[in-house]
Design brief:
The complex is a heterodimer of chains A (245) and B (212).
Chain A lengths: L2 H4 L1 E2 L28 E2 L5 H4 L34 E10 L9 E6 L24 E5 L5 E7 L4 E3 L5 E3 L2 E6 L8 E7 L17 H5 L2 E4 L10 E4 L2 E3 L2 E2 L8
Parallel strand pairs in A: 3-12, 3-13, 10-11
Antiparallel strand pairs in A: 1-14, 3-6, 4-5, 4-9, 7-8, 9-10, 11-12
Chain B lengths: L25 H5 L1 H4 L21 E9 L10 E6 L19 E5 L7 E7 L4 E2 L5 E2 L2 E7 L7 E7 L3 H5 L10 H4 L3 E7 L5 E4 L2 E2 L9 E2 L1
Parallel strand pairs in B: 1-10, 1-11, 8-9
Antiparallel strand pairs in B: 1-4, 2-3, 2-7, 5-6, 7-8, 9-10
The chains are: A mainly beta (245), B mainly beta (212).
The complex binds fe (iii) ion (FE).
Chain lengths: 245, 212
Amino acid sequence: MSDIENRRFVPRDRNWHPAPHTPGYKTSVARSPRQALVSLLKPTLSELSGPDFQNLRMGPHDNDLLLNFREDPQHSGLPIGERIMMHGRVIDQFGKPIPHTLVEMWQANAGGRYRHKKDQYLAPLDPGFGGVGRCLTDEQGWYRFRTIRPGPYPWPNDINSWRPAHIHVSVMGPSISTRLITQMYFEGDPLIPLCPIVQTLRDPEAVATMVGRLDMAHSRTMDCLTYRFDLVVRGELQTWFENQG
Amino acid sequence: MQQPNAQPMADGVLRETASQTAGPYVHIGLALDIAGLPPREQEIWNRLAGDQAEGERIEVIGRVIDGNGDTVRDALLEAWQADASGEYQPRFDSDAPFNSFGRTAATVENDGEWQFLTIKPGAVTLGNGRQMAPHINLTVFARGINIHLNTRLYFEDESEANAGCPVFNAIESPTRRQTLLARRESDSGDGVERYRFDIRLQGEGETVFFDF
Ligand SMILES: [Fe+3]
């Protein structure tokens, strides 16, 4: 039996994560299953393995949103907005760092507008800003992005719903069982408790796992503020080798 | 050490970071071409098998359909599958003939259809000697989906293997098992077998989603 098949992860607490059906977030109503999930009591090699992106070739600025997009390389300058760094560690539920795992992020510009064909918001596009980043964590599980703080934006849900400033974050972890997409919010943003998407979570402590904290110690003098945002993925349990020998 | 935004459980084990929807603009981050952004040096996309890959070349297409019967036009899918000999190839390598991992997205231009270009996976042999029928693990993300959904695509023309697959048979309802079968459509013209796999998020014919 391969080692991977002996792997076990802490079960995902589905009461901690948002429920699929959350009527306050209207789009979820028609997009949430009604049947119960089928629980795989014995996960197989398929669920216990996952992709490794150490050979994915990346550009030198893939994690630097201040430099990785210019609509017009001759004339577009640095992006408009508050320069920030966002960094943190990918760890598992036992605090073990997850090295060399892929972290991807995307966000709106300082005005709250996404560089996406479908975004029609009034705020202008920024010729110096694309809004996408990716990197692999280092040996200790650290990742880092340089970017600008995104703006809040309105969206059609309730009559006057606004998304708090946020950065979408995607992490793979050691297997497809640890796959996770979340959003980082900014400490102190008064829009956080008003947001129907944040409110899909029932537990305020679950919301707290998505709030990036101002990290003055790592802020750069005369350059940028830094936010610390750790990503915790499902913990890998120590296994009993029952059938050893 | 307590992490800044990590919440401990009573027994000191940290809580997983909570999930949030990938939202309507997921393409900016994970499917740049669909958002209208220029490609980076290498992208992760929907061709899992190149011309040199071993195995039967197939095309898998489908739609994600919501509880009203309407096509979800902003879904993003991830695939994880074994190679033709039933082995996973975890190390992603754009130059390799086959990769076990890929991504695709429904697009408005394609009327909400997504597509993977791959090979038919082999049966995966488990440590206890049992075999899982050929399958592709699929993960679904979209606006309105608060936490991604995990499913498996099986092949309708593998009925014998499906009947012996421990996971396929872990689904109690035989009726619901049918929701995991990709239907053979037709040859796409160049000798590539085409399978259709529609994912129904809710209601009649709702696709089986797994927790693992
Ligand atoms: Fe957003």
